[in-house]
Amino acid sequence: MPSPAKFTEFIDANADKFIQRLADAVAIPSVSSDASRRPDVIKMAHYLDGELKLLGVETKLVDLGTHFMQEQTLQLPPAILGRLGSDPKKKTILVYGHFDVQPASISDGWNTDPFKLVIDEATGRLYGRGSTDDKGPVLGWLNVIEAHKSLGLEMPVNLRFCFEGMEETGSEGLDDLIKEEVKKGKDGYFDGVDCVCISDNYWLNTRTPVLTYGLRGLTYIMVTVSGPAQDLHSGAYGRAVHEPMTDLVKLMSGLVRSDGKILIPGVDEMVEPADEEEIKMYNSMDYTIDDIEVSAGAPVALSSDKATVLMGRMRYPSLSLHGIEGAFSGVGGKTVIPAKVTGKFSIRLVPPQTPEKVNPLIFSFLESEFAKLNSKNKLVVESGHGGKPWVADFKHWNYEAAIKATEAVYKKTPDLTREGGSIPVTLTFAESLGVNVLLLPMGRGDDGAHSTNEKLDRSNFIEGTKLLGTYLYEVAAIAA
Ligand SMILES: C[C@H](N)C(=O)N[C@@H](Cc1c[nH]cn1)C(=O)O
Ligand SMILES: [Zn+2]
Ligand SMILES: [Zn+2]
């Protein structure tokens, strides 16, 4: 059942208004990983809650308590639960999204203020932090509701919402909230949910829409090496003391090879290799080496074989080195020996890996490698946030509905992909509710989520909004 013509016409006619709403959201710098921005994440929760209420959604802000971060106790941003419609004859879809964003500043290399939505009229690109991850998609759902309310159209399904403000920093408190809400049964917001839809990832390229049935998990690790009581002069102490940075760089360089092979014994080995049939599936996707190199901005793909690159991103684990806290990184040539340095890296996990299975391998490898250095420095290894990988059954009516909706809006059959990124709460929804979860992305593969100059194409925002609405009609049609 396609969406009514007047719905899609309304979306086109109100595109500028929707873009203004996205601009208002982008203007709130809701960076969850930065303690000084926490009031903005909370402000963003209230902004979104207000917009939902104006559209007739019954909402509840859930206090998730406090947590300790950057040496202070901080209030967690509230989660937003919402309910629209309770018709027992209709299917009920739970929508999840997040209103926090990654850090961004002009000094990182942005061409424009990251927290001011800039519209490039020539290309149709909407630049701003959170435009594609995940404020654009979250507002897409609001646009759908606004269209129905303004047109006096009945919603084809019941909707439930769960929006959070800590996704980029480990989704603290959300698993417990979901489990509590499920326990409440009839009195909870998730009662009667038939399926879940999440719009929080991206197409593989700039041409072909995708539906996503898998996500990698994550384990984040901090390795601290310390020794001297304070930073030292390298002329006075160089080659005379054990240097923390030298030890740390040795440890970090032993974690992964330049070709991506993970060197921690047992980690890569946990994953079965792909068989011929699976490799065929990767080869059939609309994807080229150019797609990854254009979006990365340089010819840096690990292989010229498309299936190898896709499998590296979707079905094998990857280890990335992120940075070293405490190391000298300013301009100029400061000749210091840092006293304490913390290396940060993460591994994206795939089934059957979990943080519980992989962390002991990481810890014992780092400890035994450190012992080989015969250093008098001190090593501390800590695990940060993490999450399990998730893979869904895509032979399900939820996916069938999304395929039909994509064909109706984009006139193309979507590719079925697994996402390299992580949304840890996805598995919690799947397991706690026992229902199918679908990822229905709005943005393109070159949007630059988490990167400088993040953007969402105007057409993806508008057609993506139509897609979300049309998907609701297709679910309703399957139910009928
Ligand atoms: C795919 C989703 N939009 C996303 O970006 N998820 C993040 C989650 C995360 C984990 N640590 C920090 N953020 C990701 O995959 O990096
Ligand atoms: Zn993100
Ligand atoms: Zn996201």
From TrEMBL:
CDD domains named among the record's database cross-references: M20_dipept_like_CNDP
Cofactor binding note of this UniProt entry: Binds 2 manganese ions per subunit.
Record-listed Mn(2+) 2 binding positions: 98, 133, 200
Keywords noted in UniProt: Hydrolase, Manganese, Metal-binding, Metalloprotease, Protease
Domain Peptidase M20 dimerisation: 213-371
Biological processes annotated in GO: proteolysis
Pfam families named in the record: M20_dimer, Peptidase_M20
Active site: 100, 167 (proton acceptor)
Cofactor: Mn(2+)
Binding site for Mn(2+) 1: 133, 168, 450
UniProt-recorded name of the protein: Peptidase M20 dimerisation domain-containing protein
Species this protein is from: Serpula lacrymans var. lacrymans (strain S7.3) (Dry rot fungus)
